[in-house]
Amino acid sequence: MSVFDIGFMQRRQTGGHEVMPERYVQVQYFLCPVGLGLKSRPIDAIVGCLAREYAARLGVSRHRDFQGGIVRDTEICRQLLELKEPWVVDRIKVDAQRRELHAYLRTGKSWFGRPAFVQPKSCWRHANVGPLKTYIHASLPEQGTESPEAVPFLGPAGDDYTHGLAHKVIECLNAGLGYRQVCRLLDIDVYLAWQIRHAISEGVHGTDHGFEGALAESASPGAARQVIPPTGDPVWFNLLASDTLMDIRLLSLKLLLARSRQEFSGLTSHDAKILRVNTLRRFFIKHEKQLGHEIAQLATFRESAEGIDS
Amino acid sequence: MSKTTQAGMMTPTEAAELIKAGRALAIAGDEALLATLPRGTWVGGSTPYFMTGDGGQCCRDRLFVQDLGDGDASVHHYDEITLRNVLEDAPENGYSIIILPAGSKVLEAYAHHAPEFPDMYLKPIVGWVSGVHLDELAQGKAVVFDGRSGECFSDRAVVLHVPLDDSLSAVVHIVNLFEAGTGPELTFEATSRAVGRCRVDGQPHNFVDLVLRESGQQQLPLVADYCGAMVNVSIQSVDEQAGVVNLYAPVFEGVSYRFARPVEDYPTAFLAAMPDHAGNLVFGCNCILNYLYSELEGRTTAELTGPITFGEVAYQLLNQTAVFLTVEPAA
CB within 8 A of A37, min separation 6: which ones? Predict the structure, then answer.
């Protein structure tokens, strides 16, 4: 059996008793060595891997235990995914061959100790948990009960990725990594990375992921920072938002600026605007030596600046 | 012409010698000649038209070879799905030469989506659209060649990625003699190469009527101003029955266009527009429509030589434009 349904196995092991669909993981799993040959390793090794990740994140010694020596796998998963109430992990599946972790979330209250079973309506790719490609299965809350945009472990309805994964992708891109590098780093395929970038660029969901802080930190170090304004400088927003002519010598910058301005005016998402700013700024950094004439003109766009928070 | 590279008309034997010597080459010519070349670091595309040092000519027994040096250039090919990765495969410092077959889905994909590709405008990419002799438009098929394997494609783009030393940088230039005329401003509601409706100064309008009236026998392209760079979209045909104008490149949603004003003497104007010293010019191409409408056969266009093409690439797909790339010392 390539797919291990831990909850199902627990029910089977307990003779079909309707207990909480969770399996208790012995603390010994924390000590279980997990190597690279994950595909051929048994379920214990997979869970051990999760447990090690858990212990590392929480700063817990591998020799200490939880709750008197045993820890529920769904509880480990809940903490690894950093779920917030009212979300809990209903059950998890690990596909050892495909290195996939499927976490099924719910918000429903227990009914005489038994959770109300609801078939999840959505499945999103989330950031890896350890070496496992992680998928979240859940149904978005009814409108008005909670803003799903604020929850990193959920995703937009109809999309394939969580907000948390989108945040990581955009952070990496804004830090200057190429798509291939981002995909290798996050263990996702290039089309998913492209979808995420495209969705945010287009402001499809009208959401902001709060990248601004990360962007400010990701401003390129060194000499370029001294000459080329940082991401948060209002120069960039003004340059993109205005129609004011700039005397440009490089064809590539003419085309990039024209296109960015054309798109910028239609953007509603702050994140999408930040992406445009970063693309343009990246161009200036990459071609700094050829752009002395253009860099000298940037200061003129600072006048009447209102800043990126405007 | 380049001191470190060379370009010009050659026999297939001469081209083969360069390939065997390990040179990275972009080659234009008749499909049958390209098919005889040995495997190596080269890309090729079909066209029988060339701008040579002696002027424009149609030639089917020789090839136009652009020698791009003996560095670590690499050859790739892409279909319409993988094409979006083209610039991610490109070197951080260097340039890419792309050849796309006319009438293919991969050309359509490039025409529509190139501006959205990762790293577009950040890494230099130039190139051209391959075609066939104008007398064979009905039966001929535009093709490209991947020199590594010698494979011939009519549905893929071939690309030569050429890295440069850190002391050098590649710069893309265009020479477009067309300027926006004084006619109405046109916008389009969708990015498309087949257009029936447009907006004239904001008001809905029949585009077919407008083209028949304003485009100077369809020889004048639409021109858009991209922050000072004039970008053309040329008219391929008018299908009055279907109520559609077919274009050689798409008009983009949200971009404003005007019909160009006529250019009186193309070769003279071209010479005036070319920089005195174009620098180390390693690649060039010019449009078949300029060749035809400006009667360039037997007439030269300064230092700019190369294939006469069925669409030009300077980052995005262009029409009726000359493109060249120079390699210059990094400032």
Answer: none
Domain end (from B259, B287, B316): B259
Report CB contact under 8 Å: A245, B314. no
Asked whether residue B179 is assigned to any structural domain, the reply reads no
pLDDT tops 50 at residue B112: yes
Total length of chain B:
331
- Please tell me whether residue B82 adopts helix, strand or coil conformation: helix
Tens digits of per-residue pLDDT, A57-98? 554 444 344 444 445 678 888 888 888 878 888 888 888 888
Q: Are residues B36 and B137 in the same domain?
A: yes
Q: Total structural domains in chain B?
A: 2
- The model's pTM is 0.70
Residues B63 and B35 in one domain: yes
Question: Among residues 258-317 of chain B, which lie with CB inside 8 Å of chain A?
Answer: 314-316
Residue B131 has pLDDT above 50, yes or no: yes
Averaged pLDDT, A122-132: 88
A179: nearest CB among B88, B120, B171: B88
Q: Which of A255, A266, A279 has its CB closest to that of B229?
A: A255
Q: Could you tell me the sign of the dihedral formed by the alpha carbons of B93, B285, B324, B179, in that order?
A: negative
Query: Two tokens at A71?
Result: 């820890």
A137: β partners: A104, A123
> Is B172 within 8 Å of A261 when comparing Cβ atoms?
no
Of B115, B122, B227, nearest to A246 by CB-CB distance is B227
Question: Residue B50: pLDDT band by 50, 70, 90 thresholds?
Answer: very high
How far is the alpha carbon of B174 from chain A, nearest alpha carbon, in Å?
8
Evaluate whether residue B2 is within a structural domain: no
pLDDT at B330: 83
Give the structural domain span for B70. 7-174+266-329
Q: B228–A261: do the CB atoms touch at under 8 Å?
A: no
Boundary residue ending a domain (B259, B291, B319): B259
